[in-house]
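Side project, low priority. Logging it here so it doesn't get lost.
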Amino acid sequence: MARGETQKLSFTVPIFEPHPPQYYIRAVSDSWLQAEAFYTISFHNLSLPEARTSHTELLDLKPLPITSLGNDIYQDLYKFSHFNPIQTQIFHVLYHTDNNVLLGAPTGSGKTISAELAMLRLFNTQPDMKVIYIAPLKAIVRERMQDWRMRLVSQLGKKMVEMTGDYTPDLMALLSADIIISTPEKWDGISRNWNSRSYVTKVGLMILDEIHLLGADRGPILEVIVSRMRYISSQTERAVRFVGLSTALANASDLADWLAVGEIGLFNFKPSVRPVPLEVHIQGYPGKFYCPRMNSMNKPTYAAICTHSPTKPVLIFVSSRRQTRLTALDLIQFAASDEHPRQFLNVTEDSLQMILSQVTDQNLRHTLQFGIGLHHAGLNDKDRSLVEELFANNKIQVLVCTSTLAWGVNLPAHLVIIKGTEYYDGKAKRYVDFPITDILQMMGRAGRPQYDQHGKAVILVHEPKKSFYKKFLYEPFPVESSLREQLHDHINAEIVSGTICHKEDAMHYLTWTYLFRRLMVNPAYYGLENAEEDVLSSYLSRLVQSTFEDLEDSGCMRMNEDNVESTMLGMIASQYYLSYMTVSMFGSNIGPDTSLEVFLHILSGASEYDELPVRHNEENYNEALSRRVRYTVDKNNLDDPHVKANLLFQAHFSQLELPISDYVTDLKSVLDQSIRIIQAMIDICANSGWLSSSITCMHLLQMVMQGLWFDEDSALWMLPCMNSDLLCLLGEKGISTVQQLLDIPKANLQAMIGNFPVSKLYQDLQHFPRIQVKLKLQKRDSDDRKYVALSIKLEKTNFRQNTSRAFAPRFPKLKDEAWWLVLGNTATSELYALKRVSFSDRLVTNTELPSTQTTFQGMKLKLVSDCYIGFEQEHSIEELIKKQ
């Protein structure tokens, strides 16, 4: 640990009755004599929450047949004949009432089908209202989309849309949708401006999957959207039904109170209540260092398979992509030592060769030969889908995967092995424990209702933690709020939307949150002595005041005597879903003539990249990459996520080969977030009237989309068929942009490029638009003044199959084309107006010209693409005025 560096450690300690007066913490050096520190923790004013864990007893009821739905079409949605015991017990409340429901039950209990009962109820009683389903991970959203598309969409004729970082439906799709499946972040961004978005107020049912993740990193967003939907419901006087789905909860009653769930709607079943009983084995392993300890667990992992599931499917959860490979290779070695190297493979040799021919990843191709699959985010979609299909169809017996599979894809197995309960946290730069909820989710994949009488889970842990897991796997922690850590951004969003105008409004806003409920129940967790009214009021007042002051210091809001109002930076942060610290940093560092290098540094420094993982020893890869990129980075901070982001951007622009597959996934994540960050930077430049910086920032966005340097690479490299010889040949003809090629007839093009196949080039050119711009000045009168308006007509004059889809093969996501209309003076570098437009075939729009005659001198209108390099057009307004 370096001088001045702070390290945070969290651990649990038992507290006995009666409470001890104090505990001692002693830190002792393992290297130096008498080098130790001593700290006393007093329990004098400790206030513990009431132990109110109450579980719902599973009643001995006769299973309900699906005919209870009373609708033949609904019955056809399900392949089973009877609901399971949990679904039977909660059927009436979900399907025959509009009560809010909180369902806590183990993984594999059929909670999704339970939620569908509430959906069918809404379809029966309020068919014009919408269902919003919130899932914490894109993988869960994808699974729901696939499942419901086959059933609810195709069989019931319902319209469904997905809202994730990968997909944003258009307004018409949202207005007509019956079901919206969204991540918390997307719905938060959409619902912030609920007053102007009618589809938000048309929500009749909100389903919150994995609601126990309120206490996790993204919990504050989940907390805010539920609080906002409850607030919207009270303001519009339209009831919104809430259905929360969770694992078994320690403080279900608090969560139920917050969701306005009455006694009738609260179901909190014990973890042991499963359709398929689960047998759990916890084994401890010594060893101070992580990697050797993981290695020592491989032989017991193989032994567990041979003992508990020699022929049935096995899921092995590990902490990293590297561990998936190392674990699989050791399993292959152990199987070979037993003279059964292919004991996990259930396909013929011919079928195996056909399967292997479809696999891209070399490690996966090797392990599949022995019936062992790998599953992690580093695989491409095709490989991932293939290995899921092979495991689901029992063609391979063992699947080694990272923890994300537990949440994303429903692939149950007879045996689940959790090989280690820690993972490397790049931000903390150390190994930390998986949340208990993740461990329970992984265990929940054991036991297949159709095939198994019972499931088995083997948990391999660090020896000192064995007793901890024995206790807390069946006594879950209470769900606490983590809203305080992210309160600034949410308060800023409510100020922008007009919900908060005064300090009292902010205090009232907090009373809608889960944080407020937990403050009253467990004040000590949040640093309060007790939960008396004056103590709570004083705490909330200080919390709001400090939040306001931080937002004001960052330039996101202004405080007057009685009210608060948003600034341009605050509005941009809310609109683009950015941290207030990010836009504050932009406001401080962007100037009128900011260079491309500085813009790249500013972009990489955004708070949104704080969580970019820098894994163990990746600083070595970063150091090697830093020697190959164009701009220098801070060599003293190669383990900093922002330095890594900078390197990934530069590698993308230079099309460098990345050192490992993890970096490919990391680059996708970096590029995914960059669009809205750069758009926010452009808005800041435009609001400041800086033409040069605005244009440079637009070029940066083009670079991100095309994976090219704007000022070093030829724009012709956007064409997939381009090579050095053809580039040189076209350069000799004076052609340097795709726009120039689009203006050349096909016959002339063939003569120009000689032996190069013109059809290939012409096919690539069909992806790009040819834009025609027509300008017209119009004098207009209003009540108090006369002014000149500029009418702008844009038209795409060439035929294309996807008229508005951007062609960007090096960008990992689909994106629609957009264009900036920039009105400015190139001589003075002033920007007068900026408008971002998108259109399929043609568009007519207007903008008002500055009123003073002198500003017309040097005034120009620029058309700039947000995705294509070299597609700029410049039109002189001064010349246009002279002509008219």
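Brief comment: DSSP finds 34 helices and 26 strands in the chain.
Revisit when time allows.
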